[in-house]
Amino acid sequence: MLRIKHYFLLLQILVTLSATAGVNIKSGNFYISYTDHDLVRFNGIDIMRTYNSKSSEKGLFGIGWGSEIETRLYVIGDGNILIKEYGAGTGNQFSPVETNETRITECINQLVQAALQNEDIENNPVEINRFRREMRNNLETRFRKWLLYAELGLLKQPVLNENEKWESQDLGYQQLFKIKNGFKRIQDDGSYDLFNQLGLFTGRYKADGRLQYSISYDANKHIAVLKDKGNNSFLFTTDKEGKVRSIKSRQGTSYYWYRGLALVKTKDIANNIYVHEYDSSYNMTAIRYSNGTSMLMEYDPSTFFCIKVTEPNGNITEYEYKTFFDAEGNVNDNHYATLVLSKKKGTIKTDSAYYEYEIKDKPDGSSYLYHFIYKQNSDVFEEINNEQCEMPDYVIKNKRKHSFTYNQNCIPVSKENDSVLVKAVIDSNWNKASSLHIHYKKTNTATERRFIYNNSGNPVRITEDTVITTITYSKSQKVTRIANAQTTLLYKYNSFDQLIAVTLNGTDELLFVYDKDGALLRKESKKGKAVADAVEAVYKQLEKYISETGILFDY
């Protein structure tokens, strides 16, 4: 089973209220996401599409574009299953619980015949055996070849039995089952997705079976209608190749125009027009806006890494990518760095940020971030992580070193820097501290904090030297009271379990005001802003205090 973790940073640029762009500083991939329809406030979902310059996938919105609704399942002839998240996104490999050597052999035999038919290999024993060995030994290549030849109609799909099971660890633990009408993918939280016999994504559901949204297709297997949990409908029209021409919702209609495979123009529900330009490799080079401004992207001609972005407001960001080599002189794909130079329009000052990542492999085939360096102008941050817990052994921030140790369950049991040493005794029932011993080096003083938890693992009593803090909860484990010798806070909630009031020492009250959709509008007090600020300060301080039930990474 392939278990690969990807470590990268996306540097984001807010383009408009409905669009966010950025650059992946590992791969040099330029991306931009648009939210075309947003019905979240109507108890629905939003429709978002994302362009990635490193993607060559052809999706609902043309080459390089992907969206959640075009997640697709592919059956591989060897018994493995691949789910392409977001259509053009990460490939998620599901392996059968039991390996079937007969299927693998039949799969490779089919691939050999397809390669010969497609004239990809010469018809002689040496070339055929070389190709056969490659297909058996290289799983990624086998997947890629199967998808290619299946699209060309050169392969016969394997027969799968109902209730067959597959597993994946690529994006957290997931299970996949063959069901009567297709496939069911179950996430580790119990939520699940459904796919039809063709691998088309047909619905997303909560663990209790509540619908999030369902998708139906027309006779040509093109997306037609999406219905969400709020009974909102999105109506799609497509061209003969299945690319989306329009999406209609209660908010309005968005439109899409193409030149060949490329999406070259869109009109959103507010009638704003966006024109997209590409180079010959489908790297997006410009976005033209209705107000006459543009966003411009430049790429390295050999690697196609994005090296410069000019924003509509004139700000410029440039990217310089650093390559590292292993002991044999080969490029080390697990060690990379990028220097980011930013300059605002009309200024001569350039801000710099440097990111360096070093990834190491584990014996089980997974990987972890071993070493990370971040420099911004004169500020420096460095982190070394351990293999077992994938958490920091030490962190250096602006020349100050913070060291950590862990128990066998990867719970922090000590933290030390130049001013403090903290040691924790861990409650094995909750993996939280039963006590914290804190030694302040500069004053040579110490304090001990002891915790008692309820049956839900929430602290009900914290004793720090002679000060006792008690916490009580509702049936739903919402805090209803925090009290010590000096302070008492009382909490009040509405029927939706939203906090609506905090009362300090029986007199001063902080009120929480929400809009009709349940979003917090403001916090206030009938006694004025000064009282509101005072209650909020105490409330936040005690909330933080009772939440610190272990060693913190507060460097």
From TrEMBL:
InterPro entries: DUF6531. Pfam families: DUF6531. The keyword Secreted does not apply. Keywords: Signal. Residues 1-21 form the signal peptide. It comes from the Bacteria. The keyword Flavoprotein does not apply. Residues 23-84 form the DUF6531 domain. This is YD repeat-containing protein. It comes from Lacibacter cauensis. The lineage of its organism: Bacteria, Pseudomonadati, Bacteroidota, Chitinophagia, Chitinophagales.
